[in-house]
Amino acid sequence: MVNVYIETKDAPELTPMLVFWPNYRFAFKEKAVFSPEIMASYTTPFFTIVPGLEAADFIAVPYHYFDVLDYAPKYLAYVYALGKTTQKKVLLFDYTDYVEREIHVPSHAILFRVSAYRHHKKENEIIMPYFVEDIGRNYSFEQKPKGEKPTVGYCGQSRFGGTTRKWKAGVKWLLSLFLLYLRLDVKPHVHMRGIFWRRRALQVLSKSKSIVSRIIERDFYSLYRAIPFDAKTIRREYVENLRENVLALSVRGDANASQRFYEALSAGRIPLFLDTDCVLPLEEIIDYSRIILRVPAQEVDAISRRVTVWHALVSEGDVLQAGREAREVYERYLRLEKFFSIVFDREKSPYKKLLFR
């Protein structure tokens, strides 16, 4: 296990991020409905916290990067200086939706984050998976056969919950797009919020007579306790929607990543992945083309055609094999304890030059 030193002098009173929950066992925010159940399977720490720098492989900042940047910049600057003085690399973590904010970290710091835009990603950023429920294990999923027609499922937020909210979101996006053009961003349209992409993809899929679309649209995010319905019932509908379909539509949220993507893999389902210039975890060693159907965001209007062409080309055996491999990839690479064990393997890590040299 990797040894990390955490500076306690003038440390901010912030809640640590989930990667350090096995170390600190802090209380979850009340609105995070399923976090206790998800984290219950992660009882062994990913890092050993050591009391002194001599025994440390790295210096770690156990809080969300943007929280420290905003509320404790002096502490962050001190840790950077400490790392430079002791020639220890600094580990940072970003588990937020703040993918639109610019990252400025020194060369001896490595930022683990759940999402980035490929055209913005820096060399010292490593994409990590989300913590998600292991649906395949918890709900005893069986493999789903190909079927006569392709089946696509979606269950989640794709409505604004009112005309005013929709109008405000549209205006905000137009202003953001204008600023992206001013900054000469090379792929401005992929920055659009996930709800817009989901709505467009669902509109196209629902019109196709060649596809069986099982769609449950909501105007709320079901992982928050503030929802006006029974959380367990809502979750059961979500799980059954995954169970019933071969393909699971997986589109970014406010971050440029999809939690549903990982849940689908855990369930042995094939993500129908709308790629908004995303970077996937460990893509240097995982052949995602074997277990997902990727559709570039600029081709969203052709998503139904991409599904029907795929369905015509694959055999029953191909679909079953993809489902088995999806589950295997989740278990071997994308559960967080497996992810970190690979990343910090001094011999086999695809990031060994970044981390250890």
From TrEMBL:
Tell me what organism the protein belongs to: Candidatus Taylorbacteria bacterium RIFCSPHIGHO2_01_FULL_51_15
- All copies of domain Exostosin GT47, residue ranges: 233-302
Name the domain of life this protein comes from.
Bacteria
- An example of a Pfam family matching this protein is Exostosin_GT47
Q: What is this protein called?
A: Exostosin GT47 domain-containing protein
